[in-house]
Structure formats: structure tokens, C-alpha cells
UniProtKB/TrEMBL annotation:
Name of protein: Glyoxalase superfamily enzyme, possibly 3-demethylubiquinone-9 3-methyltransferase
Keywords: Methyltransferase, Transferase, Ubiquinone
GO MF annotation, one: methyltransferase activity
Gene3D superfamilies on file: 2,3-Dihydroxybiphenyl 1,2-Dioxygenase, domain 1 (3.10.180.10), 3.30.720.100, 3.30.720.110
Source organism superkingdom: Bacteria
An individual GO BP term: methylation
InterPro entries cross-referenced by the UniProt entry: Glyas_Bleomycin-R_OHBP_Dase, PhnB-like, VOC_core
Pfam families per the UniProt record, alphabetical: 3-dmu-9_3-mt
Domain VOC span(s) in chain numbering: 4-116
Length: 288
């Protein structure tokens, strides 16, 4: 499992409360604790929580599938996550799982709790919902992502036409009901959905990719911004589907965490002016 790719959740000041809550629910630990960035480790996976301000709200276009080993485990997480939250799909027995429920917790993060057939190495799997003008593009998106990153593959794809599942809204048979793919060793799920939800991909939940060098940074940045993607600030971008990514060279984090605060501050100032992160310009600012 790759810990150089991980989700980032956007908060308006309550990242620390949320970090503590998830560590309690899932038995994790806080690995970085600053006023702006919290990192937590759940089941050996990194999740970043960012106090970014009021601009963006998290929504269910990206949810987190938690693959559980027992019905008791599903129940334990459900009871805690439901406190102050909302059930989006009631906990129960469904054709795809003996015990399953979809809940939005009190911090606005949505979790699909699922009794798995077999234990997987990666216990928490971000799940991307392709809706509105993205509906029907889940397969195309998986192809883009798996072509962009090394050590990638597309796993099982269940199409709506494959199942006898009755849906409240008839879905096109060729659309993806559920699929699994891997980018550089990190597992994700995705699905198409015709429902006219009141939400879509936004910066509230993004995917962070830590890069080793400028070449890797450029490759990912160029692939994800091409054909209708958009460059944003400070290493953020939106791909053609509106999904937000942060392409972050590891060197940036090293320089920003330098014990010499004046130098670290210069690096941050330089970074704030950038769209794509240019490592050499950071080094120049550091040594200036």
C-alpha cells in the first residue's frame, strides 16, 4: 500500500476535533499536529486534515469505504459515526453485503461501512462518484488515472447491466455500478450515478500525491491538467472531471519543516506564489 497518495479533508477550524474523533472511532493516532495541518494514521493509512477556512464543504461525491471483518466491527463504527450525523443508507443487509450502511458523520465526511468477503491490505478505500456531466465517465477516468501513475491497474468492474439490482432510477447498462482501481499501489473505488445530487467534486476532499522530484511532479501535473483540467494555486489542480489533486514534492515539506524558521518562511512565501510547485525555485528561496 502506498502512503505517498492519501486523501485530504478540508475543515473550517475543527480539524483537530475531527482528527481526535477518527482516532477514537478507528483506533488510530495523530502523526502531525499543527494549527493548519493535522495528519492521522488509521490502519497504517495516512489521512490529512486541513484547516483551510469556510470556502469548501465536504460532500459525499467522495466517500470512504471501510472494509470490515465482522458484523460487530461494522456496528461499532456505525454507532459512533452516526452520533450527530445522518444515515444516508440505513444499516442493513443488502445484495452486495450482509451488513452495510452509508453514514455522514458530524464533520461532514461520509463513510460506507461494509462487511467484506475477504480482508484487504487497504482497509479504507476512497470512493469516487461520477455524477451530473461526469456520469458515465467513471471508466474513462480510471483509464486516465491508471495511465498517469506507475504500478496501476483496473480491477473488477461491475456494470449496471450486469446485475439484477433494481434501482430507483434506471441507470444506463454500460455505466459503472462499482469498480476497483489502483494508482501507484493505492486502492480506490468508483461508480457512475444518474441521480441529481445537490453536490459534486470540490476542494472539500482532495487527493494528495507526494512526489520524489520535479520530473514526477511535472508528469502528474501535466497529465491531470490536460484536456480540460485547471491549474490552481500552491500545487492544487482540478482534473477534467473537477476532482481536486495536490501534487506536492517531498522536498517542499522538508524545506517548510526546516528548524530555521526564517528560511522555512521564505520557502512558504515562494510556494504561495506558485501554481505547479517548482523545486528549484523553493531551493533558491531557501538559500536566498
Amino acid at each position: 500500500m502506498n502512503n505517498d497518495i492519501f486523501p485530504c479533508l478540508w475543515y473550517d477550524g475543527d480539524a483537530k476535533q475531527s482528527a481526535e474523533f477518527y482516532c477514537k472511532v478507528f483506533g488510530g493516532e495523530i502523526t502531525a499536529d499543527t494549527p493548519v495541518v493535522m495528519n492521522i494514521d488509521l490502519f497504517g493509512q495516512r489521512i490529512m486534515l486541513l484547516n483551510g477556512g469556510p470556502q469548501f464543504k465536504k460532500n459525499p461525491s467522495i466517500s470512504f469505504m471501510v472494509i470490515c471483518d465482522t458484523e460487530d466491527e461494522v456496528q461499532k463504527y456505525w454507532d459512533q459515526l452516526l452520533e450527530g450525523g445522518i444515515a444516508l443508507m440505513e444499516l442493513g443487509s443488502y445484495s452486495w453485503s450482509k451488513k452495510y450502511g452509508w453514514v455522514q458523520d458530524k464533520f461532514g465526511v461520509t463513510w460506507q461501512l461494509f462487511l467484506g468477503e475477504k480482508a484487504q491490505e487497504q482497509k479504507i478505500v476512497p470512493t469516487l462518484m461520477f455524477i451530473h456531466e461526469n456520469n458515465g465517465k467513471a471508466k474513462e477516468a480510471m483509464e486516465l488515472y491508471t495511465q498517469t501513475f506507475p504500478n496501476s491497474s483496473i480491477g473488477n468492474i461491475l456494470k449496471y447491466g450486469d446485475g439484477s439490482e433494481g434501482h430507483p432510477i434506471p441507470e444506463p447498462a454500460e455505466n459503472v455500478q462499482h469498480a476497483h482501481f489502483v494508482i501507484d499501489g493505492y486502492s480506490l473505488f468508483c461508480m457512475d450515478n444518474s441521480y441529481d445530487h445537490q453536490f459534486d467534486f470540490n476542494e472539500g476532499i482532495s487527493l494528495v500525491v507526494m512526489t520524489d522530484d520535479q520530473q514526477q511532479t511535472d508528469t502528474y501535473w501535466n497529465a491531470l491538467t490536460s484536456n480540460g483540467g485547471r491549474e490552481s494555486m500552491c500545487g492544487w489542480l482540478k482534473d477534467k472531471y473537477g476532482l481536486s489533486w495536490q501534487i506536492v514534492p517531498k522536498r517542499l515539506i522538508q524545506l517548510m519543516n526546516d528548524p530555521n524558521q526564517e528560511k522555512a518562511y521564505k520557502v512558504v512565501q515562494a510556494m504561495m506564489k506558485m501554481q505547479k510547485i517548482i523545486i528549484q525555485d523553493l531551493e533558491d528561496a531557501y538559500h536566498s
